[in-house]
Amino acid sequence: MLQNYAPSDAYVGFHFAQFDKHIYTPVIRKPIREAKPVKGDHYTVYLPAYDDRKLVPALAKIPGVRWHIFSKHARKPYHISSLSVYPIDNVNFVQSMITSAGVLCGAGFETPAEAMFLGKKLMVIPMKKQYEQHYNAAALRNLGVPVLKNIKNKRLYKIREWVESNHKVEMEYPDTTGKAIEEAVRLGGFEM
To answer: What is the pLDDT of residue 127?
Structure first.
């Protein structure tokens, strides 16, 4: 599949771990890299495949937990008991993540990498029919990150167990962006 999807004789990539010599650590944006993370009393949630109207009743079934849910469907912030729902906003999302106890998110790349860089507990739920999300989820599982198939009621106990656990996967991600660019230029036959 990859030969047809992204044919190449030379490559440079980014991933959660250096699986090969041409794979570099994730690019961590400046506000995250410079942050002083603290362990707060809430969990940050970003699951764009789920509407907040589904997330709120599901997460409300896990008592004693404060949730900051960031939803592309929300037009304005609202609060129900210990759940706060916010429209997507980069500044507020970053602040919530920096001050969270953990992050529950899709199995994309940026948010899981940043959560591990910040030393936050992490659980991921890959989007259905998104090949790259399932690949990322498998890589994260191999690193020790819990992966959930979906957020159905029969799986909520796994989220509760995760909240109650102290297990987290912390990753040191040095800034290797410059090296990756230099190698891509070199492999492409160009000079800097």
So the answer is: 95
Output the CA torsion 38→140→27→184 (10° steps).
170
The two structure tokens encoding residue 141? 């599982």
Low-confidence ranges of the chain (pLDDT < 50): none
- Are 140 and 133 contacting, i.e. CB atoms less than 8 angstroms apart? no
Q: Which two tokens stand for residue 2?
A: 């990859």
What average pLDDT does the chain have? 92
Handedness of CA 36, 120, 21, 134 (dihedral sign): negative
pTM over 0.85: yes
Q: Token digits for 6? A: 């992204």
Are 21 and 179 in contact by the 8 Å Cβ rule? The answer is no
Domain-wise residue ranges, the chain: 1-25+174-192, 30-171
CATH architecture of 30-171: 3-Layer(aba) Sandwich (3.40)
pLDDT of residue 189: 72
Identify whether the C-beta of residue 44 lies closer than 8 Å to the C-beta of residue 32: no
Q: Of 62, 24, 17, 20, which is closest to residue 43 (Cα–Cα)? A: 62
